[in-house]
Amino acid sequence: MVGASPLPLRPDGFGQVLPTPPLLRDRRMTAADVLPPPPGSRFTATVTAVSAALRERMGQTWSPDCPVPLADLRYLTVSFRGFDADAHTGELVVHEDVAEAVVSVFRRLFEQGFPIEEMRLPTTADLEAAPTGDGNNTAAYVCRAARGQTRWSQHAYGRAVDVNPFHNPLVKRDLVLPELASAYTKRADVRPGMHVPGGEAVRAFADVGWEWGGAWRSSKDYMHFSQNGQ
């Protein structure tokens, strides 16, 4: 995260939607590496079970009350291109039945040079962080309800991925998430890292049968890709 000051809260608990700072209106940052970069700058990927150490890192993003047991989740590492054009290694947790499809999507995005700022495992610290409105972590599994609803999000099943959320915010009436990303609600002004109809990420996910939240009618979740379209 860039480290903006916590935002004033709205009655619904989200941070107030404020103008995007000039630095972030054409955001081209690359986060510090969490994992070593791939050897030879080539695409590499791993798919493994959730270990005890990884479970510890996940913290409150999973609990026994969640709809998918740990045994059905898989830990992925995948290469991605940063906004610096270098190769980096990201990490995701997804359901075992979509692991290979997700790897194939990120292989394709890597080969196409699609830039991603950050891809690290969400933890309890992320859940407890004040809403600064500037986060841009590409992530998959988090056990939570869908925004503003009581049903489980597809992220709680490990069958959804949010890619470059700051470049591709959720827009629903007067709500924008991340809150400082209002400059990216102007979708005709296409900047690197954005998802647009027919764009690299939209086509890559569509080719494995996933749908894009940017095509929804009542709201637009431009960051969101899911297996069942929810």
What report would you give on this structure?
The chain is α+β, with helices and mostly antiparallel strands. It has one domain (31-226). 14% of the residues lie in helices and 17% in strands. It contains four helices and nine strands, in the order βαββααβββαβββ. The chain has helices spanning 52-58, 99-112, 124-128, 200-206, and strands at 45-49, 73-81, 87-95, 160-162, 170-172, 175-177, 211-212, 220-221, 224-226. The strands form three sheets. A three-stranded antiparallel β-sheet has the order 1-2-3, covered by helices on one side. A three-stranded antiparallel β-sheet has the order 4-9-7, covered by helices on one side. α2 runs antiparallel to α4 (200-206). The protein is globular and about 40 Å long. The chain starts with 44 loop residues before the first strand and ends with a strand.
Helix content: 10-25%
Average pLDDT for all residues? 95
Distance between the termini: 27 Å
Order of helices and strands: EHEEHHEEEHEEE
Count of the separate structural domains: 1
DSSP summary: helix tally:
4
Roughly how many Å is the radius of gyration? 16 Å
Strand neighbour order, sheet with most strands: 1-2-3
> Spans of 5+ residues with little confidence (pLDDT < 50)?
none
| Overall 3D shape | globular
Main structural class: alpha+beta
The main sheet comes to: 3 strands, antiparallel
The proportion of strand residues reads 15-25%
Number of strands: 9
